[in-house]
Amino acid sequence: MALNHILRFLLCLLTFKTGFNAEISVFVQTGTSVQLHIQTQELPEFVDLSWKNDKSEIIVRYTNEPKKVRLHSSYKDRVDFNDKTFSVTLKNMQKTDSGLYTARASGETENDIVTYRVSVIDAVEAPVLTVNSNWSSSDSCTVNFTCRAPELMINSSYQNNRCSPQEVTSHEIHTLILDCSEESIICNHSNPVSLKEDRINIKELCINKESGSDNHLIDSSLLGPVVGLAAVCILMLCLSVFLYFKYKKGAQEEVAECSSVYAQVEVEDQTREKTGNDRPITIYSTLGQHQKPAGPPEIDHTVYSVVYKQPNEKPSAISPDDT
């Protein structure tokens, strides 16, 4: 595609009207140089030869006798003149330098030898190639994409390792071209002075998509076993917690039973005595669980009550001495 632009540029240089005063279009990138040639090997005899612009400024004046070159003050640092070929080179071209440049030979008559229409333009911006959607399987890959540049856009699809080449232009100098190969999608943005491109490796994109699909299938096949394993783990955890609390509760009851303190009853007189009606006296004592103090262990100061058995004394008989 770049070759087509080069050929087009050369045709512009070589195609001009018959005779003198042919107008040739030349495009120059901003900030670069351009060389303007006489375009003829046979010049009429002249006294002086000059290059001037469409502002009537004489950029260069060359005098044949004596051989002398004069430069315009505003171009003094930006012009090179070749006194052998009579060509002129303009440097650091700006957009304000766009216009007509004419070579004129003066002698017995004045002849305009050649005229150039110089257009100073900027380099193009890089295009942007965007994938809108893609789908792939084991034997095919489909990609929908957009090739975009300022004021230009192409929408297309890549299928079965190919896409339809497309081309659009803007203002007859900016061109957006879309092309595909088995490995890449290529988006070119160009004008007569520059060419920039963006490309996507379609093969890599399709391979990645297929790999992603395979991974998704693998993950789906593992989903059932993973869920089952998680359920078993949760069940075992619940059972372990239940057994732990059950064991803990039994241990607490056992400790409570072992820590019971029973009251002791001390009977001073171990001899069983009978009451008047010969019935034994029964003494009951309430048993209770000894409550542990909340603080640190202390020496047991428990005081046990002592129960004495009161003897049943019979009234004594009156002795003869008392009477």
UniProtKB/TrEMBL annotation:
Residue intervals passing through the bilayer: 222-245
Keyword Membrane: yes
Keyword entries, A-Z: Glycoprotein, Membrane, Signal, Transmembrane, Transmembrane helix
Signal peptide residue numbers: 1-22
Taxonomic placement: Eukaryota, Metazoa, Chordata, Craniata, Vertebrata
Location in or out of the cell: Membrane
GO cellular component: membrane
UniProt keyword annotation of Transmembrane helix present: yes
Pfam families: V-set
Domain of life, source organism: Eukaryota
Descriptive protein name: SLAM family member 5-like isoform X1
Domain Immunoglobulin V-set, first and last residues per copy: 25-106
Cross-referenced InterPro entries: CD2/SLAM_rcpt (IPR015631), Ig_V-set (IPR013106)
